[in-house]
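Troubleshooting entry. Yesterday's outputs looked truncated, so today I'm pasting the complete records for two proteins to confirm everything comes through intact. If either block looks cut off, that's the bug. Protein one:
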Amino acid sequence: MLVAVYAVFALAAGARATVQIATRFGEAPVAYALSAFAAAVYVLATVALALGGRTSRRVALVALSIELAGVLVVGTLSLADPAAFPDATVWSAYGRGYGFIPLVLPVVGLYWLRRTARNEG
């Protein structure tokens, strides 16, 4: 289930970023570049979680940690200085535009990695 949700977010964020960059990049380049970065992180997390294995788990841990940091930093900055983000990113306002799933998803993913690591050891 977790991999499926990540795959949907990778597709949604990637499609959104592609359209934004192709049609309106000059309006909000930072926001649109952040959306593209978020999409890349979601793709990396999806693949790493789907593959499993020691190296993939480490890659997933890094990807999910970057995602959580991104959501927290971009979410805070987008609320503290809305003018700096003239258009929303996936991570703006802690993922409010996506029902806060971008905030919850890395926490769930990190928990899952931790829980399954205990079961393997």
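Protein two, checking that the full record survives here as well:
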Amino acid sequence: MPRWRVWANDEDGSAAVEFITAGVILLVPFIYLIITLGAMQQSLLGVEAAARHTARVIGQAEDAPSAATRGDAVIASIIDEYQLEAERVQIAMHCVPSGIECPSTGATVVVTVSTRVSLPFVPAVFGLDEATSIPLEAVAAQKVSRLWGTQ
């Protein structure tokens, strides 16, 4: 048998090469997925906490100025704690039933907090970071105290 045929049929060491090649091909996307899911989970927990705690402090405040002050403090604290991008966080508030002053006695305050999470390692070239960002939103409701404005 010619020498090149023996060499071509020799599979010594090919398992290690296949393992390394397949490992890299599978491992790199898996690690990227874990990093991406971690970033999304962190932001989702922050958005949910912001909505819940903001609705709670507004619903338990004594009057409108203290509700606004406490709500702003809660949002700033959560943005800092969960390392959210402050310019991407959007907050909306409305009361149920509609048509009444918000917040007011007996109403239900509904707070919606939303943000966008950029995928890791995506450059800000040609707006790719915005195009590949993932929107997250959380909504929380809190009944306003019957003692609103009496203190």
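Both blocks look complete. Sanity check on protein two: The CA atoms of residues 28 and 62 lie 53 Å apart.
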